[in-house]
């Protein structure tokens, strides 16, 4: 295990060393690039003055709030559309036409309507998260073993119990996968909104560092975002394995 | 008045059939799957249906369960038309792996039927234990279906069906995917359970030996569209026994008759 | 008295407000003011309308386009105007291997502007037109300030419209040379940036605006005369290294906004087909 | 049979039209200031104007070009890297964790770095779009390779097939449904990233059109751009499912 | 020298076995699955293996195929040690659905074996047609596996195995998932094909009737760990016939013997 993690570090370390050597050798002067050693120092500096931690808190807050709202909306729509074939066919064009609209294109409108701050960012993140959750939970519901639905019919379970006792638990593993994907999207969108407009969080940190002509600090933020995303993914993967590793799930009716 | 009179007329003297197909025709996707099927199953009877693959056995069973509605004709249960599935009718699906909730333990799966029946949660555990004991799974209440062998899963499905306290048990090739030994064991178990509960059974299988071994009556379906091609009464004594019953001349005679019938339909 | 949020981009253009905060001038006038850094100037009108900020510092072009688009904004005070010094900071910087002798040499070149239809771009086009060159012959693309040096070096564009401190940095790095000092040649003294608010807010807070103007009048003197103090405040706001800030003189602060100055911008932008309606200058500036 | 499919399509379009009518109603009643929310009529007028003056065509072409090249690059690289990682344990140990680190990086944050390395060029756009769009394809390929029926590998072994033959005759075709699904996801990502790229790096395309419209506070033009993006997304995804349908004719579910 | 001498010694007089297990033991995951299994299969012999579920039938077959290497002992083929799968040995897997390439047509699936054998592409179509005809799928060359019934898919897998021109055919419950009719048809087909090609066959099944009906010899395995528990020679005349063969006293005797053996192992 430790051997494998050491091997996993080999490639990035090699790249970093090569980059450092290249920067030093060519006496690179750039407003967008900096040698790894300086990036590490900048990251260290940002930690000591706590600015990066505050920015992380802001970004994660918006990302998670947006993720939660988007997931709930996407799940409700996805389950409804997944259960009803009629609804699915009727909504197809609408969903497929709205889905590819990049949330970033809606930024100007969101800014005017909601102003700077958490609210606008949360709305944009939620908009971006609704679609993957909707699409995947719809697919999850539609792929539920038809036999289980027949069992529900034969037992004459009322609709609410059908959703709660059969549909949600059966689709849960795949819904969680959708959630995991959306968590990554939420982080990316939150940072993008901050870079484009919102004076908050890690994205604003990147923009400020860039405008302040501090490429080392800018790249330090970038590295930090990568680390957060990596950690988030590991966390959710572990959670997924814990929850759904066996065929048995947590929604036991007992 | 008129319909009551007619009902009395069609079954004079004999006890009223529990399940009755009245000239039932079913079309699916523009194709006629079942045509003009008329059939009565008496309370407590064990009826087996055999037939070549694709002849409509499963479809007939689903009609009896109320999962399909006939295109024309009527399916009655206890004299009432079947509009939708009823809790008095339990179905054992062939693919037990798919019909169990993988996220619930054995106890939880049985519990589902009790919950649907509205049994208060305090009374459930005792009943669940009893049912699991009945099907021979007493120590396995906490196991998930994925931790059970095929035979155990099928027994669990039967336990859930028994939890419905059904008047009628519909079984669709319930042992199709099991190995010969497990299969024979379960056949005997089903016979015992059914004898104890007095339920009516319709049992679909493609194994001719199994049909004769289990049934009071065996019906062979003809394909395209599905209709009755042969009907045999099985006059083998009960209780039946795996080796000796199968070696009786009557058994061999019935088997040859069914075999020739199926052979003829396959061409 | 509620706190007033003033939103500006990370430049020296809002120096009068920054200094007024740092020197306690607003406080003296009974105002509580806070600066909000905003990444992109063209977001300022939207930020004002959504009440994220009450007063913002849009460039003249952004302000006029917003007004043209139907946003109900009003200018409340002047911030900076073009002056010989600030005009000298603005150049078209040309990469090595390209020589520009006269304006028509820009024809067929790829020129990076920090914002299409934004301040530097509009001025440059105006300059081309005055010199008798058809701007359609120039291929404009967007290049943000921090990436200019890298793009010039890689040859991605032939020239960039830029300002200090980038001109000096790129010259020192040997990436090219100044191709034209077009702002100097235009020699205008019209506003670069002014303070604006929504009409609704301005009408309700007439007293606060009066105090705001008075405070700016005081701090503008400091900005224009005390480089030390001004630079320190600017560096704090923009987070740029103090040496970089000191190397370039801040743009000239001019707290009073005159109607004629806006009229020039309206005319320039109209000829460049950036405005669709006829704007009434008297309604755009608060009395 | 086919008739019902068409009928459903029509009904689906009718529902979409219903939503547009609702939008018109909201705009007409001025529930939202017309400065931010133009009605579909104004957006449509702007769309027509944009096309007739020819400006919108070139913007659309620009976006389509960015999207197509970026997507193709992502597909080729994604399948290749996915196949290598999917079929080699060593690569999985050495390379996969680094990829997991790169994956969550927002493309918007990569753009300044990409510009520094590649300049303000098509190559930069290609790189950035491919960087973002590669993940669904790569992950799908890795998953597809991992999910190849072990029985098929045993068939290959007992036929004594070479390693290369196993990859090309067994693993790749077997993973193709996953790969196509990944490519389909990437198509949407590529469109979104083209727009992000055009907005943040000022490249010519619909993203830039939206940005300029927003800057000039011309909301009708902005919505025209957004509508065109939606249409582009819809059309490309329909085209993709047609292609999928043909390529996966062997799958029972495709029939 | 020493080993050659030993080999000569162990099979004096009789023809050399094609497949020979020599005190084979196999451990998987720390568990002993097969222990001390010694077994010889003569060229052209039809050997059936039966046993309770989990007793190691599949494992033994995979050892014979070279898909597993024994932990100790030797598996020889034609006197050579088996290091890896060989093209002369074809395996018919039970799960035909998984063993076919779903993206290739019937012809393409057969072609795979020919490609692996290095046959020039010009010669392939004719050979493919011939093979498909042999297994009774002449008109189905262009169909995908998903368009075929289970029996057709299994026949297709057999065609691919025949394309290898194997000296030995290993079959792992090849008809386990098929209905009784299709199954009996395929049993007869396999007997015909094997008789024509003269291949050696090892056939694993849990259906005792099937084992007796097909085999020259039937071996019953004991579980935990797998070893030989019973060995029966089947002296039923060939060609065999579904109904009459199964009703012969010798058949019934063998069946009862096997049945009692399996019954005993299950406890
Ligand atoms: N939903 C459906 N739509 C159209 N045709 C159907 C449908 N369900 C079944 N069929 C067709 O109806 C016929 C009978 O199917 P059914 O499943 O009842 O056969 P079966 O006798 O149970 O066969 P098997 O022994 O293979 O299970 C088949 O030809 C099948 O293709
Ligand atoms: N890879 C493995 N690792 C560990 N144990 C294994 C492995 N493969 C099989 N076994 C175990 O070896 C025993 C024999 O398995 P095998 O599949 O050979 O049984 P079988 O006789 O073919 O049974 P069936 O009739 O159910 O197919 C079983 O107990 C099984 O759990
Ligand atoms: Mg069936
Ligand atoms: Mg096995």
TrEMBL record, chain A:
Transmembrane segments: 60-85, 97-116, 122-141, 175-197, 217-236
Main subcellular localisation: membrane
Membrane topology listed for this record: Multi-pass membrane protein
Pfam name, any one: BPD_transp_1
InterPro entries: MetI-like, MetI-like_sf
Keyword line: Cell membrane, Membrane, Transmembrane, Transmembrane helix, Transport
SUPFAM superfamilies: MetI-like
Domain ABC transmembrane type-1 span(s) in chain numbering: 56-236
Subcellular location: Cell membrane
Assigned protein family: Belongs to the binding-protein-dependent transport system permease family.
Protein name: ABC-type nitrate/sulfonate/bicarbonate transport system permease component
UniProtKB/TrEMBL annotation, chains B, E:
UniProt KW keywords: ATP-binding, Nucleotide-binding, Transport
Highest taxon, organism lineage: Bacteria
Entries under InterPro entries matching the protein: AAA+_ATPase, ABC_transporter-like_ATP-bd, ABC_transporter-like_CS, ABC_transporter_ATP-bind, P-loop_NTPase
ABC transporter domain boundaries: 19-248
Gene Ontology terms for molecular function: ATP binding
Pfam families found in the cross-reference section: ABC_tran
Family per record: Belongs to the ABC transporter superfamily.
Protein name in the entry: NitT/TauT family transport system ATP-binding protein
TrEMBL record, chain D:
Ranges annotated as spanning the membrane: 7-26, 68-86, 107-135, 184-203, 223-243
CDD domains: TM_PBP2
Keyword Lipid biosynthesis: no
Keywords: Cell membrane, Membrane, Transmembrane, Transmembrane helix, Transport
Superkingdom of source: Bacteria
Boundaries of every ABC transmembrane type-1 domain copy: 60-244
Gene3D superfamilies: MetI-like
Record-linked PANTHER family: ABC TRANSPORTER PERMEASE PROTEIN MJ0413-RELATED (PTHR30151:SF0), ALKANE SULFONATE ABC TRANSPORTER-RELATED, MEMBRANE SUBUNIT (PTHR30151)
The family this protein is said to belong to: Belongs to the binding-protein-dependent transport system permease family.
Protein name stated in the entry: Sulfonate transport system permease protein
């Amino acid at each position: 295990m430790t051997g494998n993690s050491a091997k996993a570090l080999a490639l990035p370390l090699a790249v970093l060393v090569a980059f450092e050597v290249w920067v030093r050798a060519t006496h690179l002067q750039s407003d967008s690039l900096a040698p790894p050693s300086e990036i590490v120092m900048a990251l260290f500096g940002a930690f000591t003055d706590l600015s990066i931690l505050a920015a992380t808190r802001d970004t994660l807050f918006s990302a998670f709030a947006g993720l939660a709202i988007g997931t709930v909306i996407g799940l409700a729509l996805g389950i409804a559309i997944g259960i009803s074939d009629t609804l699915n066919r009727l909504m197809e064009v609408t969903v497929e036409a709205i889905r590819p609209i990049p949330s970033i294109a809606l930024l100007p409108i969101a800014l005017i309507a909601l102003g700077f701050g958490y609210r606008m960012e949360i709305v944009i993140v939620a908009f971006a998260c609704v679609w993957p959750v909707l699409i995947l939970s719809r697919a999850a519901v539609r792929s539920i073993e038809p036999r289980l639905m027949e069992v529900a019919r034969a037992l004459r379970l009322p609709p609410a119990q059908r959703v709660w006792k059969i549909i949600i638990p059966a689709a849960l593993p795949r819904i969680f996968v959708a959630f995991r994907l959306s968590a990554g999207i939420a982080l990316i969108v939150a940072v993008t909104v901050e870079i484009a407009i919102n004076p908050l969080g890690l994205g604003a940190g990147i923009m400020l560092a860039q405008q302040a002509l501090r490429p080392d600090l800018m790249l330090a933020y970038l590295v930090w975002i990568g680390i957060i995303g990596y950690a988030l993914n590991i966390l959710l993967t572990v959670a997924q394995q814990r929850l759904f590793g066996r065929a048995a799930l947590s929604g036991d009716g007992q | 008045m008129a319909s009551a009179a007619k009902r009395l007329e069609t079954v004079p003297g004999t006890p009223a059939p529990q399940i009755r197909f009245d000239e039932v025709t079913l079309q699916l996707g523009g194709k006629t799957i079942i045509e003009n099927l008329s059939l009565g199953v008496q309370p407590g009877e064990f009826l087996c249906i055999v037939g070549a693959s694709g002849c409509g056995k499963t479809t007939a069973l689903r009609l009896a369960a109320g999962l399909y509605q006939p295109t024309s004709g009527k399916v009655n249960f206890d004299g009432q038309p079947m509009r939708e599935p009823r809790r008095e009718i339990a179905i054992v699906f062939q693919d037990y792996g798919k019909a169990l909730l993988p996220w619930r333990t054995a106890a939880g799966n049985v519990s589902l039927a009790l919950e649907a029946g509205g049994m208060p949660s305090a009374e459930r555990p005792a009943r669940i234990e009893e049912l699991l004991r009945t099907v021979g799974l007493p120590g396995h209440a906490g196991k998930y279906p994925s931790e059970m062998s095929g035979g155990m899963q099928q027994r669990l499905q039967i336990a859930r069906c028994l939890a419905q306290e059904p008047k009628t048990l519909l079984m669709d090739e319930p042992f199709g995917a099991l190995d010969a030994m497990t299969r024979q064991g379960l056949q005997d178990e089903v016979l015992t359970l059914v004898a104890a509960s007095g339920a009516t059974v319709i049992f679909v299988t493609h194994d001719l030996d199994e049909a004769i071994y289990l049934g009071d009556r065996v019906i062979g379906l003809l394909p395209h569209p599905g209709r009755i091609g042969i009907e045999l009464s099985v006059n083998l004594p009960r209780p039946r026994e795996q080796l000796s019953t199968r070696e009786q001349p009557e058994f061999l005679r019935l088997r040859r008759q069914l075999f020739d019938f199926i052979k003829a339909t396959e061409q | 008295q509620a706190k007033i949020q003033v939103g500006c981009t990370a430049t020296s253009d809002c120096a009068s407000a920054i200094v007024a905060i740092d020197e306690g001038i607003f406080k003296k006038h009974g105002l509580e003011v806070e600066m909000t850094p905003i990444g992109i100037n063209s977001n300022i009108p939207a930020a004002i309308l959504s009440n994220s900020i009450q007063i913002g510092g849009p460039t003249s072009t952004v302000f006029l386009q917003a007004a043209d688009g139907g946003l109900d904004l009003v200018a409340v005070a002047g911030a900076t105007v073009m002056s010989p010094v600030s005009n000298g900071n603005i150049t078209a910087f040309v990469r090595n291997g390209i020589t520009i002798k006269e304006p028509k040499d820009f024809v067929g070149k790829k020129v990076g502007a920090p914002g299409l239809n934004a301040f530097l771009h509009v001025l440059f086009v105006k300059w081309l037109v005055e010199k008798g060159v058809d701007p359609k012959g120039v291929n404009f693309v967007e290049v943000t300030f921090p990436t200019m040096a890298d793009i010039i070096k890689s040859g991605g564009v032939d020239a960039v419209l830029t300002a200090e401190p980038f001109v000096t940095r790129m010259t020192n790095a040997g990436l090219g040379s100044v191709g034209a000092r077009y702002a100097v040649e235009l020699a205008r003294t019209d506003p670069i940036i002014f303070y604006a608010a929504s009409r609704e807010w301005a009408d309700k807070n007439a007293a606060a605006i009066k105090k705001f103007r008075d405070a700016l009048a005081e701090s503008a003197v400091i900005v224009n005369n005390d480089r030390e103090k001004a630079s320190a405040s600017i560096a704090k706001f923009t987070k740029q290294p103090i040496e970089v800030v000191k190397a370039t003189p801040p743009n000239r602060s001019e707290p009073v906004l005159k109607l004629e100055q806006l009229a020039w911008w309206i005319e320039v932008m109209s000829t460049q087909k950036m405005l669709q309606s006829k704007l009434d200058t008297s309604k755009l500036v608060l009395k | 049979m086919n008739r019902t499919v068409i009928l459903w399509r029509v009904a689906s379009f009718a529902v979409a039209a219903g939503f547009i009518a609702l939008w018109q109603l909201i705009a007409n009643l001025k529930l939202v200031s017309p400065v931010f929310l133009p009605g579909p009529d104004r957006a449509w007028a702007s769309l027509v104007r944009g096309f007739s003056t020819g400006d919108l065509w070139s913007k659309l072409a620009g976006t389509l070009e960015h999207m197509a090249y970026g997507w193709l690059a992502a597909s080729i690289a994604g399948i290749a890297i996915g196949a290598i990682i999917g079929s080699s344990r060593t690569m999985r140990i050495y390379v996969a964790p680094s990829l997991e680190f790169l994956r969550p990086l927002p493309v918007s944050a990569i753009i300044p770095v990409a510009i520094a390395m590649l300049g303000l060029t098509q190559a930069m756009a290609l790189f950035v779009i491919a960087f973002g769009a590669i993940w669904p394809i790569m992950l799908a390929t890795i998953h597809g390779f991992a999910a190849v029926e072990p029985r098929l590998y045993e068939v290959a072994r007992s036929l004594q097939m070479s390693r290369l033959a196993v990859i090309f005759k067994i693993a790749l075709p077997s993973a193709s449904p996953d790969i196509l699904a990944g490519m389909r996801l990437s198509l949407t990502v590529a469109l979104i990233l083209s727009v992000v790229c055009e907005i943040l790096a000022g490249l010519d395309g619909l993203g830039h059109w939206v940005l300029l419209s927003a800057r000039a506070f011309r909301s009708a033009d902005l919505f025209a751009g957004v509508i065109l993006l939606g249409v582009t997304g819809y059309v490309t995804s329909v085209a993709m499912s047609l292609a999928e349908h043909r390529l996966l004719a062997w799958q029972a579910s495709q029939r």
